[in-house]
Write a structure and sequence with these properties.
221 residues; mainly beta; 5 helices; 13 strands; 15% helix
């Protein structure tokens, strides 16, 4: 799973879930929905750093990366990878810009078609959570709540499992497993919510000299 697929299929998010010896307790699905609702209902913006690990179906590490993200609900985000390679994904709710610094290329897609049925909905608030995902399992780990979600429409999602870890109003981590068993796990740091973020952060101006692929002008895109 490349960075581009992960973020778009996420906004898409995007925490590392390790085996724990802490005491765990299963809680009800309704309480899981309630905690997600409390986290999302008052959420306007997110600012955070992240580290990401991608593993294959046999738990072999494929890639490590890190960067930062901004999210403004509904539908706007800026996801920037800084290591090991520079890549930027920006959405204003209508368009999605994908800039690959190594390839010197910018691709523009329509956000609606690129983000439909993906975990990006979970954080950006493009659609109702309950309309797109269902909780399979909820448990308490120390001071955090671990929530496993599955897309209601399997055919329209690249992922078969999303795991979210919340501590109060803080998003601690997110893990996404695709249909082939490959998992992208993110650990968030410096998490801040509801800061004032200027609209200009969600519009991307391509650097001079880069190749531009604008799929928004193509019929059916």
């Amino acid at each position: 799973m490349c960075k581009r697929s992960f973020v778009v299929a996420v906004v898409s998010l995007c925490l590392s879930f390790t085996n724990s010896l802490m005491a765990q307790s299963v809680i009800t699905t309704d309480s899981g929905y309630s905690q997600l609702d409390r986290f999302l209902n008052s959420l306007e913006t997110i600012q955070a750093g992240f580290s990401q690990v991608v593993k294959d179906a046999r738990d072999q590490e494929l890639e490590r990366s890190e960067g930062s993200l901004l999210i403004k609900r509904p539908g706007k985000f800026r996801w920037e990878y800084t290591k090991p390679n520079e890549q930027t994904l920006v959405s204003d709710g209508q368009r999605l810009w994908i800039y690959d610094a190594e390839l010197q290329q910018v691709t523009i897609n329509r956000a609606e078609t690129s983000l439909a049925g993906t975990p990006a909905i979970l954080l950006s608030g493009k659609d109702e959570l309950r309309a797109n995902f269902e909780i399979e399992h909820v448990e308490r780990r120390a001071q955090s709540t671990v929530i496993n979600l599955a897309p209601k429409s399997v055919s329209s999602s690249d992922f078969k499992l999303i795991q979210v870890v919340l501590s109060g109003e803080q998003l601690i981590s997110m893990s996404l497993t695709d249909k082939l068993g490959q998992t992208s796990s993110l650990q968030f740091s410096r998490f801040k919510r509801n800061l004032t973020v200027p609209e200009s952060r969600f519009v991307f101006t391509p650097p001079k000299g880069v190749d531009l692929v604008d799929n928004t002008r193509k019929p059916g895109k």
